[in-house]
Amino acid sequence: MCRVASRDRMATDVIIHDSMSAKTTFSSLPLLLSLIVCPCAHASGTLTVAAVGDIMMGTTWPEEVLPPRDGEGIFDSVADSFRGAGIVFGNLEGPLFDGGEGIKCAKHRNPRKTLCYEFRMPPRYAGHLEAAGFNAMNVANNHTFDFGREGIESTVGTLDNAGIQAVGGDNVAAFCAGEKTVAVVGFSYSPPSPNSYPVQDIPAAMETVRELKEAYDLVLVSFHGGSEGKDALQVPDADEIFAGTNRGNVVGFSRAVIDAGADLVIGHGPHVLRAMEVYKGKLIAYSLGNFLTYGMFNIKGPSGISLVLRADIDLETGNFAGGAIVPVALRDGGIPYPDPERKAIGLIRELIAARGIPAGLNVGEDGALMLESPSAPRQETVPSPGGDVSGKIRFRRRDPSGRASCRR
Hints:
Layout: E1 3-4, E2 10-18, E3 23-31, E4 36-37, E5 46-56, E6 87-92, H1 126-132, E7 136-138, H2 148-161, E8 165-167, E9 173-177, E10 180-188, E11 197-198, H3 202-215, E12 218-224, E13 241-242, E14 245-246, H4 250-259, E15 264-268, E16 276-279, E17 282-285, E18 290-293, E19 305-314, E20 320-331, E21 335-338, H5 343-355, E22 361-363, E23 368-371, E24 394-397, E25 404-407
Parallel strand pairs: 5-6, 5-18, 6-7, 7-8, 10-11, 10-12, 12-15, 15-17
Antiparallel strand pairs: 1-4, 2-3, 5-19, 9-10, 13-14, 16-17, 19-20, 20-21, 20-23, 22-23, 24-25
């Protein structure tokens, strides 16, 4: 039985980034870490990552639009899709915050203005994420600062208290898979800040990943970028401009961070699914679409077609070792349910084919994800976090070189 370390505040050597220079340094700071320690994981095994797209569990701003039963059990229909995963990841579209007024749309208070949206989820809703099994949540997106610095600080702290690591900018999540160390870092098209590194600055992103790779065995990259809506299903290898903002060249970005050492790239932001590919042995998912977007999002057509991505990563090489698409449909205002029509599987297959270039990836009719030319049999998967707490486990530098390690 693999075990999860209890979460505890402790002084630990962590990676801190200078958002202006993209320089990475080490500093001893108090940090809440969620460490997966699996003594049963074999060195030749795989880590399973379960990832989903945009999550907005209702809002209390500018008016209250909250789900039935205050959101209790809102993920229950799809939570089984997370079982067996070592890292369960999503993109949180908005702060977990009480009070205050939105600042992003302050100059657009005309109710007829529809191109600016602000969200504010009750902090207690972090419990819904925790109950579903999430342990990493992206905050690098265009809603991070809907309620300013107080909003993002509340969000990061609330997630920490729920046992969920925030991902974005200086918030680099750290995990252990057996004896292997794993970092998760987040980028977006939003203005650079300590909570979001710019997806548009590819050289700086590559440098960030290189420096993380010097300290961690595996590096997973999240990005919030690309255009939006039903016209954004196809992913171009070019800068995407939407609502007057350069939202990055997500193809160029994704391949570049893999060149720099990233082992998995997870995209979100377009609010629709996009193609996947395997590049130099690493999986790229260009957009995971909407996942739980209650009350305030369009869920018609492709915007309501969703999935859970399960990706197995070889712990030795970091290469994609197989996985699955679990199809999901959004109904009842934006709540996810298993999709018996399996629309996401068909859509992903169509989007891959429409690109007209080799994807290095086969998507089975049942949603199985396989390399086009598998070079080795699938390895044992690191089991899901769960079971008995094994006590405090420190995550710290292994030696003077700055390498991180997992130690009891």
